[in-house]
Amino acid sequence: MSVMTPPGIKNSGDYIEGVLATVKAKNLAESEFHQAVQEVLDSLRLVLQKHPEYRSARILERITEPERVLMFRVPWFDDRGDVQVNRGFRIEMNSAIGPYKGGLRFHPSVNLGILKFLAFEQVFKNSLTTLPMGGGKGGSDFDPKGKSDNEVMRFCQSFMTELQRHIGPDTDVPAGDIGVGGREIGFLFGQYKRLRNEFTGVLTGKGLNWGGSLIRPEATGYGCVYFANEMLKTRKETFDGKLCLVSGSGNVSQYTVEKLLDFGAKPITWSDSDGVIFDPDGIDREKLAWVMELKNVRRGRIREYTDKYKKAVFMPTDVKLDHNPIWNIKADCAFPSATQNEIKAKDAANLLKNGCKLVAEGANMPCTLEATKMFLDAKTLYGPAKAANAGGVATSGLEMAQNSARLSWTREEVDDRLHKIMIAIHKTCFETAEKYGTPGNLVNGANIGGFMKVANAMLDQGLV
Predict the structure, then answer these.
(1) Per-residue exposure over 365-384, b if at least 16 CB sit within 10 Å of its own CB, e if not
(2) Which entry of 18, 27, 49, 379 is 20 to 30 Å from 176 by CA?
(3) Which CATH number fits domain 1-65+439-464: 1.25.40.20, 1.20.1740.10, 1.10.285.10, 3.40.630.30?
């Protein structure tokens, strides 16, 4: 990251490197966690001179160590009656400003390193929302893809049978993430209620009929576009007519496309693990509805889009390559909304070469450190995930508030609150970046802004 050590801290770099070395030594082979910690610590070089109390209280060492790590066996029966065994996790990272809050991810790639990185990011993301939520993350290496509803139900019930011991509305409130949508949240909530004999707001992303919030499914995508719109305003620009690349085709991608259409932009891509769809005519509301039915109901593959819309092109992807074809399509804006590290250095170079002026991260840490540095050095409008995709957890916080009050707000009220939260997050990031001498660098703004609130709460609460 392009940061400078302030004058007067001769050894701040050594201190940061020492903390990072300790994190790597304690968490071997957890590269995503190392990457997330390094990105934040690089920004925090800027605050050590003004706040020596953070160093003396060992805040950096404490904030990079989870308060609790849970790992457990999840046995379940498949439809053939055979026993399957998966591994379950919950990382309770930091509760300085509220109960642990963060999603559950069901995907074969899930491991401790990925969940630690997600939980660490969640701490600062939740802090930026202005709501009282700590950070956590969890999940399993279970793959819901290709499983029947009954298999997913049996897995979720087994998973919750263990997890319910460790969560609660004032302790830890999980939500959905990759592989965990409304179906999975329903099965998880039903088992929690059955075992605990209580109906509480222990999960967010619930169905509207039983405690869910309007706008929650849309929130991450909507919030990302709201944040990007604030970035454009700093250069007196709008989305009107801008070509936009959106990766993924799940929840975040779908509602990113919907909100881009509301703002007059022209989204032109989708993707999934098989490949990329490029639609030169642009994605309109009819095409969006078709993709939502394909992905949310039929659970099909994005390549089927070309069977329906003949002008669209399907490009298969190869994970062994150092680039993805989606990021080599000429466009004004990019919304990486699929998974971590999907934009590598070669992808960043392709985007910049093709004139991309804005990158807003809908997924968690979708850009490598090299790609992030390239965007910042090029003065691209760059919205880091812990700020740009905070709309999802912000609306989860609003769902928690509605559950606590036994109320349900209107769609307009929730959307208005979400929009105001995203404006506030951008304001915090923008002003903090300027205050610490790196104007326009929203990575530093988000990292420092999110960190300060948590660090000060940790100082107030003593050595716990």
Answers:
(1) bbbbbebbbbbbeeebbbbb
(2) 27
(3) 1.10.285.10
Nearest to 117 by CA among 363, 455, 371: 363
Q: Which residue has the tokens 């985007």?
A: 351
Which string of b and e fits 157-183 if b means at least 16 CB within 10 Å? bbbbbebbebbbeeebbbbbbbbbbbb
6 band by pLDDT with thresholds 50, 70 and 90: very low
Q: How far is CA 370 from CA 156, 345, 362, in A?
A: 38, 6, 18
Q: Distance between CA atoms of 443 and 415, rounded to whole angstroms?
A: 25
The confidence band for 11, taking pLDDT boundaries of 50, 70 and 90, is low
Tell me if 336 sits within 8 A of 363, measured CB to CB: yes
Task: State the average pLDDT over residues 312-319.
Answer: 93
What is the C-alpha separation between 303 and 201, in angstroms, rounded? 38
Give residue-wise pLDDT tens across range 256-291.
Answer: 999 999 999 999 999 999 999 999 999 999 999 999
Whether the CB-CB separation of 329 and 350 falls below 8 Å is answered with no
Is residue 344 annotated as a catalytic residue, yes or no? no
What is the rounded distance in angstroms from the CA atom of residue 380 to the CA atom of residue 440? 9
Q: Which of 101, 116, 125, 137 is catalytic?
A: 137
Considering the chain, tell me which residue range(s) the CATH 3.40.50.10860 domain(s) occupy.
Answer: 68-200
Residue identified by tokens 């979708």 is 366
Specify the CATH class of 219-383 in words.
alpha beta
Amino acid found at 134: G
Name the residue with tokens 């999840």: 74
- Residue 111's Cβ-count burial label (10 Å; 0-12, 13-18, 19+) is middle
- CATH number assigned to the domain covering 68-200: 3.40.50.10860
Give backbone dihedrals phi and psi of 175, rounded to 5 degrees, phi first.
-140, -165
What pairing do the DSSP bridges indicate for beta strands 358-360 and 381-383?
parallel
Read off the tokens for 240: 């009107």
